[in-house]
Amino acid sequence: AIMAMKHGRAVVLLGALSALWVMTVMSVAIGYALPQLIPRNVTHYAAALLFWYFGFKLIYESSTLKHGGTSEELEDVEKELGYDQEAATKEDSQKFFLRENEKLASVRAVRVIRDAFVLTFLAEWGDRSQIATIAMGTSHNFMGVVLGGCIGHAVCTGVAVQGGILLASRISEKTVTLVGGILFLLFGIHEIIWG
Predict the structure, then answer these.
(1) Residue 81: is its pLDDT beyond 60?
(2) pLDDT, tens only, 109-139
(3) Pairwise CA distance, residues 115 & 101, whole Å
(4) Is residue 26's pLDDT more than 90?
(5) Contact 20/153 with Cβ under 8 angstroms?
(6) At 38, phi and psi to the nearest 5?
(7) Is residue 21 a contact partner of residue 153, using CB atoms and an 8 Å limit?
(8) How many whole angstroms separate alpha carbon 164 and alpha carbon 6?
(9) Fewest 10 Å CB contacts: which of 80, 174, 190, 195?
(10) Where do runs of H (alpha helix) occur along the chain?
(11) CA-to-CA distance for 41 and 46, rounded, in angstroms?
């Protein structure tokens, strides 16, 4: 979201989605291969335990967060990228849109795509969504998990690029974390019953 405020949204989206899609295919492939190396019933229960672990961890984290305000992660990213909300005036926005077409046609666009790819890939490596994708790849249809993961990443990343700052300032990190924890617990139950 922050990169999209400084660079063209389309190129940031392309870089971020490319990283997420590569990681999704890799994760599902790992999940698909695990039952070949480890008995399926072991991977089945391990997947459910991972979902529950992350679910309880997120619920615990949500209980320790303050209610309201922007997230610390958002503030850290803004500082890292040098974003100053007070400096983002109407004039700056107009200049940004005038330069937009130039950026897309230049080498800068390739650099932005590369930076978005690397930043997203490194930030997401080993996170809960990757572990969940690996877990789902152990017992579900390979192409179904790949397509579902890629579509899910496209929707979430598109929302982040289009309105992430607006959402982050209106929805508390505590609420998002709590809902995420509950969803992981439900995924664990689903894995035990239908996985």
Answers:
(1) no
(2) 788 888 888 888 887 887 788 888 988 888 8
(3) 19
(4) yes
(5) yes
(6) -125, 140
(7) yes
(8) 13
(9) 80
(10) 2-6, 9-37, 40-64, 72-81, 90-104, 107-124, 128-139, 142-170, 173-194
(11) 8
